[in-house]
Design a protein that fits this description.
This protein has helices at 19-27, 29-35, 117-127, 129-145, and strands spanning 8-15, 42-48, 55-61, 67-78, 82-87, 93-102, 105-114. By secondary structure, the protein is of the alpha+beta class. The chain has a 7-stranded antiparallel sheet.
């Protein structure tokens, strides 16, 4: 058990696509708006500067008509292995997404670490963060599996 286990959400998906393709879908704003977010959500990208210190701002439009403004700062980009960013608009959390290739498949692991267990629990309860993360990775898989 890690020292962050009580305040983290970890979601993994195995995608039958090359790592470079999956990583590119994550760092290309044109592609990202096609799959980012849970089922029924759409995304308007405002800024996506994929480099350490770069700003990532977007609005997620919920199926209920509610808009969710998001702002993050990229901390680390290791192409095509890892993306680390800090989500600044509440709730605050740090996400490390890794892309591991093997056997023609890519294992994507998203680890969100919140400032406290209480904040993690609230994100799960209020925003459906666990199911939302699973749906987001499923949408990523659908996106990269479409013919180019």
């Amino acid at each position: 058990m890690t020292d962050t286990a009580d305040r983290e959400i970890v979601t993994t998906a195995v995608i039958a696509a090359p790592r470079a393709r999956v990583f590119e879908a994550w760092v290309d704003p044109v592609q990202m708006v096609q799959w980012w977010g849970p089922n029924g959500f759409t995304t308007t990208m405002q800024e996506m500067d994929v480099r350490p210190g770069g700003v990532w701002q977007f609005i997620m439009h919920g199926p209920d008509g509610v808009d969710y403004k998001n702002k993050s700062i990229f901390e680390e980009i290791v192409t095509p292995e890892r993306i680390v960013y800090s989500h600044l608009s509440g709730p605050a959390f740090r996400t490390t997404t890794t892309f591991d290739e093997g056997g023609g498949r890519t294992t994507v692991t998203m680890q969100m670490v919140f400032e406290s267990a209480k904040e993690r629990d609230q994100a799960v309860k209020v925003f459906g963060a666990v199911e939302g993360a699973k749906q987001t990775l499923a949408r990523l898989e659908q996106h990269v599996m479409r013919p180019s």
